[in-house]
């Protein structure tokens, strides 16, 4: 049953939701993340536990599927929805979800196809890579230092909810994580220009699995991370462009190794 409509922009629940939306520290402290929009919220609800849903009466009427969460739904007045909105044009549906575990141990122990990111700071690139990893059937994503937070609103929008469906693992020491993967036979392939082989020569025969390793947009992978990999690969290109951004380059590599 729906509770009474929130009409105050200073309501404690609304202020808390805004704090979760805006601050990674708040998300980490509370173990929840914020999402906006009916399509994204419904998609995330397939893989994450919904804690609370806020929506205008009009938005609830436009999206009947939200009725499945009536026990956790609180209507809000339009001017309150404007405060919750993290985008210029509010979609009038907002949710708090419990943050899934980001323990890397299960991925390091069992996954066959992985994506690993180091220093990928742009939320759009991180979201694109999460979406591509999900689309091409990868088992999970390892997040090294310096990456955009996977459950931040911008990454969630770019990933179209993939962050909630794909196992993630935070790895403060990415070279050590790659060494653990190599220890059980997973081939770790660094995306790098120097001392690398063209992608079309890398093959796809990796019987124990593969981990595609992508670095930051500006700096690439650190030397310790490259040294921890089995080999380095590059995408053959014409001289019309110097490089591809991390989202595009990583997606090409993920597609290439989708059948491993």
Give an account of the 3D structure.
The structure is a single chain. The chain has helices at 12-22, 24-30, 38-44, 57-62, 78-84, 105-110, 123-135, 153-159, 174-183, 199-202, 223-228, 246-256; strands at 32-36, 50-55, 73-75, 93-98, 113-117, 140-143, 168-170, 187-191, 197-198, 210-214, 231-234. With 260 residues, it is α/β, with parallel strands linked by helices. The chain has a seven-stranded parallel beta sheet with strand order 7-6-5-10-8-11-9, with helices on both faces. A four-stranded mixed beta sheet has the order 1-4-2-3, sandwiched between helices. Helix 7 (123-135) runs parallel beside helix 8 and helix 7 packs parallel to helix 12. 46% of the residues are buried.
Structure in a nutshell:
The protein is α/β, with parallel strands linked by helices. It is 37% helix and 18% strand. It has helices at 12-22, 24-30, 38-44, 57-62, 78-84, 105-110, 123-135, 153-159, 174-183, 199-202, 223-228, 246-256, and strands at 32-36, 50-55, 73-75, 93-98, 113-117, 140-143, 168-170, 187-191, 197-198, 210-214, 231-234.
Question: What's the structural blueprint in terms of helices and strands?
Answer:
Layout: H1 12-22, H2 24-30, E1 32-36, H3 38-44, E2 50-55, H4 57-62, E3 73-75, H5 78-84, E4 93-98, H6 105-110, E5 113-117, H7 123-135, E6 140-143, H8 153-159, E7 168-170, H9 174-183, E8 187-191, E9 197-198, H10 199-202, E10 210-214, H11 223-228, E11 231-234, H12 246-256
Parallel strand pairs: 2-3, 5-6, 5-10, 6-7, 8-10, 8-11, 9-11
Antiparallel strand pairs: 1-4, 2-4
């Amino acid at each position: 049953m729906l509770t009474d409509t929130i009409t105050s922009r200073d309501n404690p629940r609304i202020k808390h939701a805004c704090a979760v939306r805006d601050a990674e520290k708040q998300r980490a402290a509370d173990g929840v993340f914020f999402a906006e929009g009916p399509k994204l919220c419904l998609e995330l609800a397939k893989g994450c536990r919904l804690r609370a849903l806020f929506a205008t009466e009009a938005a609830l009427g436009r999206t009947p599927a939200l009725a499945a969460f009536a026990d956790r739904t609180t209507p809000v007045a339009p001017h309150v929805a404007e405060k919750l909105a993290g985008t210029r044009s509010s979609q009038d549906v907002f949710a708090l979800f419990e943050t899934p575990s980001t323990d890397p141990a299960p991925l390091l122990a069992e996954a066959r196809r992985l994506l690993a990111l180091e220093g990928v700071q742009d939320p759009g690139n991180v979201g694109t890579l999460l979406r591509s990893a999900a689309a091409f059937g990868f088992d999970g994503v390892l997040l090294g230092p310096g990456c955009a937070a996977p459950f931040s609103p911008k990454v969630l929008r770019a990933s179209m909810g993939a962050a909630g469906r794909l196992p993630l693992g935070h790895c403060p020491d990415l070279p050590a994580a790659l060494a653990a993967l190599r220890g059980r036979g997973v081939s770790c392939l660094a995306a790098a220009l120097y001392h690398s082989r063209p992608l079309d020569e890398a093959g796809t025969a990796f019987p124990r699995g593969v981990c595609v390793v992508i670095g930051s947009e500006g700096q690439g992978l650190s030397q310790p991370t490259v040294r921890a990999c089995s080999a380095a690969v590059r995408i053959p290109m014409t001289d019309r462009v110097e490089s591809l951004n991390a989202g595009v380059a990583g997606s090409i590599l993920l597609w290439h190794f989708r059948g491993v």
